[in-house]
């Protein structure tokens, strides 16, 4: 714990010392940890149609959730601790834990029924407040997280609940939480910004020219993190050949060594990096050796206006343009009808339509611009190939209902990789903000705001009676 220019060692269990070092009062004195408890996760909680199983804690973890179904299906689970007492006079807390899973990524879909949160109870055991949080983890590695917040004045006890509706827990897959600790603090009059905990993983940005016809690089990656990079954790791999890549540190990033000249086409890299508080990122990145797109650029003006070849473009568009019974199952007729109605932008959710040559060319014939799927590896092949040759494609669509399906770092991977293949269009994604029917307590947008060019809000529900429709 820091007191002036001196440090005092404190013998708190588990991660409590890490919490105490981040708190400093206005007069320079430190209010340390008043008390701490280790919640006992012994209640099974809510497991959708019993497709997952709760296992009691052992010395390696507080609990684990295991998929018990025999085939892939929809799952959702929640695990709640027994109530723990809140010491008298405390007003702040921190919750610290490590979490891992055998799935690729943990995506928190904060539905009320399975939301992760701390519940605060009064003397009668009634809930008087909640502190929602978003646990995350990377595959097959424990990552440390810390959540801080205020305790309601009338709270006499609390309980911790972990849960999520996505991703699905497949046959034999596991989610494990360990080292859970709740620490309590007295009131703090001031917490300098520089002392706030870093709860987000490092951001990995591309810092190289791609596509490029020069195979000699250099290939650089830049790291961004509020708490500082743990440079001993940085590793780079080429997954396709199973080899580790050497690198040199340069300021706030790295430059790859020993990989040049790069082969023509796409080269893949995996970058692993953690910050000083243990938050970890695994980034999957592409470098493209080849010709740049020859189409005119699409950009955003500072006021948000879309510029196509330097001229403003105001989009009037529709989702889901597909062959249907009302257009005679003729996509060309569909685009013709839309063009007559003044529509100038379109997209499709139908896998048989989007990214198909017929669909893309039909839109071009009728002067309708497109934003086209760029979510998955097959779509990236389209972007690197024929997709770059269509000037009426103005954006690549990275995610739909984003926070339900991908993490912020996955969205950033898609953004950076699409730009590495074709940096002449925009990247975009769509998500719901505060859907009342699902009772989200935390905005789904805020953690994704910096990782694509355009965000399209899904404003649900649409209210109003018949006369408003």
Summarize the structure.
It is built from 6 helices and 30 strands.
Helical residue percent band = 10-25%
Spans of 5+ residues with little confidence (pLDDT < 50)? 1-33, 188-196
Strand proportion = 35-45%
Q: Give the mean pLDDT.
A: 79
Rounded to the nearest angstrom, the distance between the terminal CA atoms is 61 Å
CATH topology of the largest domain: Jelly Rolls
Q: Whole-number radius of gyration?
A: 25 Å
Total count of strands:
30
Total helical elements: 6
Structural class, by secondary structure, is: mainly beta
For the largest beta-sheet, the strand count, sense and barrel status come to:
7 strands, antiparallel
For the record, the CATH architecture of the largest domain stands as: Sandwich
Assign the CATH class of the largest domain. Answer: Mainly Beta
């Amino acid at each position: 714990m820091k007191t002036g220019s001196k440090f005092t060692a404190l013998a708190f269990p588990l991660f409590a010392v890490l919490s105490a070092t981040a708190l400093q009062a206005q007069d320079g004195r430190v209010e340390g940890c008043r008390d701490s408890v280790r919640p006992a996760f012994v209640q099974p909680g809510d497991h959708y149609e019993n497709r997952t199983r709760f296992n009691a804690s052992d010395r390696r973890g507080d609990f684990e959730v295991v998929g018990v179904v025999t085939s892939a299906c929809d799952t959702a689970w929640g695990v709640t601790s027994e109530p723990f007492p809140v010491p008298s006079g405390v007003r702040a807390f921190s919750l610290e834990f490590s979490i891992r899973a055998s799935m690729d990524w943990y995506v928190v879909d904060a539905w009320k029924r399975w939301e992760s949160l701390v519940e605060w109870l009064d003397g009668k055991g009634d809930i008087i407040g909640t502190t929602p949080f978003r646990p995350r983890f990377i595959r097959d590695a424990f990552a440390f997280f810390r959540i801080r917040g205020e305790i309601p004045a009338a709270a006499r006890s609390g309980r911790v609940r972990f849960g999520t509706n996505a991703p699905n827990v497949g046959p034999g897959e596991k989610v494990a939480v360990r080292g859970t600790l709740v620490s309590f603090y007295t009131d703090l009059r001031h917490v300098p910004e520089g002392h706030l905990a870093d709860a987000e993983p490092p951001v990995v940005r591309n810092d190289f020219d791609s596509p490029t016809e020069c195979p000699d690089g250099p290939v650089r990656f830049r790291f961004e993190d509020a708490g500082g990079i743990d440079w001993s954790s940085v590793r780079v791999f080429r997954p396709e050949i199973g080899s580790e890549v050497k690198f040199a540190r340069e300021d706030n990033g790295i430059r790859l060594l020993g990989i040049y000249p790069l082969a023509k086409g796409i080269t893949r890299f995996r970058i692993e990096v953690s910050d000083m508080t243990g938050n970890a990122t695994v980034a999957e990145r592409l470098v493209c050796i080849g010709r740049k797109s020859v189409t005119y650029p699409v950009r955003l003006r500072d006021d948000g206006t879309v510029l196509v070849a330097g001229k403003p473009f105001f989009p009037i568009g529709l989702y889901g343009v597909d062959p249907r019974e009302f257009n005679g199952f003729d996509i060309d007729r569909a685009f013709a009808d839309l063009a007559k109605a003044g529509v100038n932008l379109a997209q499709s959710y139908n896998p048989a339509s989007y990214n198909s040559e017929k669909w893309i060319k039909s839109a071009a014939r009728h002067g309708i611009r497109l934003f086209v799927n760029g979510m998955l590896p097959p779509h990236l092949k389209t972007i690197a190939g024929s997709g770059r040759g269509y000037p009426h494609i103005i954006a690549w669509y990275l995610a739909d209902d984003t926070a339900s399906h991908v993490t912020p770092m996955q969205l950033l991977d898609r953004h950076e990789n699409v730009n590495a293949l074709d940096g002449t269009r925009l990247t975009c994604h769509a998500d719901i903000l505060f859907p009342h029917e699902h009772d989200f307590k935390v905005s789904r947008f805020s953690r994704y705001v910096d990782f694509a060019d355009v965000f399209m809000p899904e404003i649900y529900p649409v209210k109003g009676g018949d006369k408003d429709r």
